[in-house]
Amino acid sequence: MHSSGKTDIGSKRTNNQDSIYFSDVPVGPLPNLYIVADGMGGHRAGDKASRMAIDLTVDFVKKSTIENPIAVLKRAMIFANNEIYKAANKEVDYSGMGTTMVAAVAKDGMLYVANIGDSRLYAINEEITQITMDHSLVEELIRNGELERKKGRNHPEKNIITKAMGSREEVLPDFFEIEIKPNDKYLLCSDGLSNMVENDEIRDIVIENYSLDDIAQALVNRANYYGGTDNISVVIISE
Hints:
Layout: E1 2-8, E2 18-23, E3 33-40, H1 45-63, H2 69-90, E4 98-107, E5 110-116, E6 120-124, E7 128-130, H3 137-143, H4 149-152, E8 174-179, E9 185-189, H5 191-194, H6 199-208, H7 212-225, E10 232-238
Antiparallel strand pairs: 1-10, 2-3, 3-4, 4-5, 5-8, 6-7, 6-9, 9-10
């Protein structure tokens, strides 16, 4: 696999609470690993939570002997959640901190995906398909038939997250498996991108730019062009 990633403070925030990780070479028993985390909490707490989530997850994977991607991601993320939760309850400065996370591993022609919160993974070719499902109030309203998806984008409570790492002692990620297809690209991103740029426009940027580095930069640039009201993080991967 090949990858590129970029995280940006955006145009309005004073610090970056997002963190990213991408490795095309083995991480412990896994052949590769890609992560985006979007922290929440006070000025110090959000960036602490997202950095802890990635560092703890990667460190757990490196020490693991489990070869099944879903199994190792599940255990790693449960461990990271517990450590973040303990830190949030131990130190006043970190009280209430939490983070979203979306992670992916490519192995044997399949992409294994885990997510907590509203950071997303998209599969992109001529179409764009959101693989993950947001853990958010708006998504729950949509699934329950109480809100049209088109109206969800501008809903006043669109930033309310219903599940986050560190928010409670036990949090389980959702898991997805998709077949890796030739010429497809896969995008992990925080809501600083998905809230600012429409899905169809994300697809157009991905298919119009040749290199993964150019795609990552172009996506960040477009989110900033539309206001950059949040931190923006992307990891783009392909075969």
